[in-house]
Design goal:
Elements: H1 3-14, E1 20-27, E2 33-38, H2 41-54, H3 63-69, E3 74-82, H4 96-113
Antiparallel strand pairs: 1-2, 1-3
Length: about 130
């Protein structure tokens, strides 16, 4: 593949939308969940799988259970996606307008799942 074609593909990738939305990490040993959002769900899944492979936890909320049970008891699942209104980004700064939507969606999922106390890793607001 020539340099020009590689550059075109890299530019197309840089200006494309990644799947964005909300996911959960669930502890299969005790059923607790951690709800998170991401502007790049595939990237979040890849980071999580890498953490499991390396048995290295970078999520402080999971620290105690990760040490007690190991990374193998945790699973990643997508809860919801936001569909972009356009096909392409004219500029990466356009992603900022989606960040509020992603954050609001995450709050709705936390409200719905109530992942507090024995049900999850979140601390109640208040």
């Amino acid at each position: 593949m020539d340099k020009q074609r590689k550059k075109e593909l890299a530019d197309a990738y840089a200006h494309s939308f990644r799947p964005m939305g909300v996911y959960q990490i669930r502890n299969t040993a005790n059923g607790k969940v951690l709800v998170r959002s991401s502007m790049d769900l595939e990237g979040a899944r890849n980071r999580f799988e890498f953490m499991k492979q390396m048995n290295t936890n970078t999520l402080p909320e999971l620290k105690a259970d990760w040490e007690a049970h190991g990374g193998g008891v945790f699973e990643f699942s997508e809860l919801d996606r936001i569909k972009p209104r356009e096909e392409q980004l004219a500029d990466r700064s356009e992603l900022k307008k989606y960040q509020d939507e992603v954050d609001a969606l995450a709050e709705l999922w936390v409200e719905k799942l109530q992942p507090f106390g024995d049900k999850g890793y979140h601390k109640p607001k208040g």
